[in-house]
Amino acid sequence: MQLKIYNSLTAEKEIFKPILEGNIGMYVCGPTVYSNVHLGNVRTFLSFDFIYRTLIHLGYKVRYVRNITDAGHLTDDGNVENDRFVKQTRLEKLEPMEIVQKYTVDFHKVLEMFNLLPPNIEPTATGHIVEQIELTQKLIEKGFAYESNGSVYFDVIEYNKRGMNYGELSKRNIEELFANTRDLDGQGEKKNPQDFALWKKASPAHIMRWNSPWGEGFPGWHLECTAMSTKYLGENFDIHGGGMDLKFPHHECEIAQGKACNDTSPVNYWMHANMLTMNGQRMSKSTGNYILPMQLVSGDNNFFEKPFHPTIVRFCFLQAHYRSVLDISNDAMVASEKGYLRLMEAYKLLNSITPDEVKESGFNLQDWKNKCYEALTDDFNSPILIAHLFEVVKYIFALNDGKETISTKDLEELKEILKAFIFDVLGLQAIEENNNEKLDQTLQVLIELRNQARKAKNFELSDQIRDRLLAEGIELKDGRDGTSYVLN
């Protein structure tokens, strides 16, 4: 089956043709590590983890690059006081690289918790300052950039004059950009308001700074990704991914930088994951409709009735196509948990199924497999794949009830492919039983037996239960509200 990918650049679903047969270069914009990774970020990275897993399952050799933005960059108003890293260093009274380390560790912990595969290469912006300076110099030499008061800007007008189209990804025209862009970032330094920074002069208040031919400064946000993606994947590579919010201006600027610098379009297929909402509303700290990944998993929140295992959250996320808006709610999470448990119960049942070589089955395994692969190769359609998995779940329960049959060959094939789809492609995990919960239940039984012995004035048995537990490091405490225990 031919793999089809929706290309944001052409706004069409296209047959995927890798630059090098059997090999794929894929770059995904990573986090800016100045705060905890939020659920919307997790949704984006999880979407591309599913895409990465699918490509591997389909037999491609993938070089997956996902960056870490750790150099800081200005917000839209160009005010250094609003630089995210500057604000966070002052708020937490830490050095910039302490902030970077703290939230990079948090990012990796969260993604590991949701069973995301690590990328093959994870470059940092601060580790590629030299490459960014070289790119800036090259753009100046080619006439696409200019220096102004220690900063360097990309000349959008010049880019368009040479027959290229700034706005081709986001489908914006230059006249619209003229009308809607104010000169906030350049503060009078730019030729045109829509020109964007390749290198910014560091003011005395800016903590993160590097030497350059134009004086001390720091790289532009858009330049970082161009430098890192081209270094590890080449001037033209297969797939570039990220959240929908990065389409403009970030990815638009990457295209312009790549074309201007290397005379070729940097990426063949642009992919964008859609946003995450909660209870039908956009997630926002200002409105209070906001929750961190750890809070969803721990249950420490006011939105969900209980904690949900990370694999349940992952299963819930994958029930929406990566290009669709995903809305999470308590009901959606509960339904996902029930669906996951039924899927895993069916998978476990396969080991107890007895094949029947005589009777013919009404279930066509090959047709079912084809439908699953049609979903995978049709722009990574995870919800359709999951729907097909529940078709086979129904079949497995019918097998268990003796209402259906399966041959030995088909049974072994079904075990193999179901394992691949559940664990390798969807990236789900088996949830281990909560040993603490089982211990608590066991101790409550022993406490009840001890209470019954005391009521029956069988103090010898009562004391024996208490002493045996104490010898194992479990101390019983009798109080007015009953008996509790402490683990020593």
Tell me about this structure.
The chain is an alpha/beta fold. The chain is built from 16 helices and 15 strands. A four-stranded parallel beta sheet has the order 4-3-9-10, sandwiched between helices. Strands 5-6-7-8 form a four-stranded antiparallel beta sheet. Helix 1 links the parallel strand 3 and strand 4. Helix 4 packs across helix 7, helix 10 packs across helix 11 and helix 11 crosses helix 13. It is flat. The chain starts with a strand and ends with a strand. About 1% of the residues have low confidence.
Structural class: alpha/beta
Largest sheet: 4 strands, parallel
Number of strands: 15
Shape: flat
Q: What's the average pLDDT?
A: 91
Query: What percent of the residues sit in helical stretches (DSSP H or I)?
Result: 40-55%
SSE topology:
Layout (H helix, E strand, L loop, with lengths): L3 E4 L4 E4 L7 E6 L10 H19 L3 E6 L17 H9 L3 H18 L15 H13 L3 E4 L2 E4 L1 H6 L12 H7 L15 E6 L15 E3 L1 H13 L3 E7 L3 H16 L4 E7 L2 E3 L2 E2 L10 H6 L11 H8 L8 E3 L1 H20 L15 H13 L4 H19 L7 H18 L9 H21 L3 H13 L2 E6 L2 E6 L1
Parallel strand pairs: 3-4, 3-9, 9-10, 11-13
Antiparallel strand pairs: 1-2, 5-6, 6-7, 7-8, 11-12, 14-15
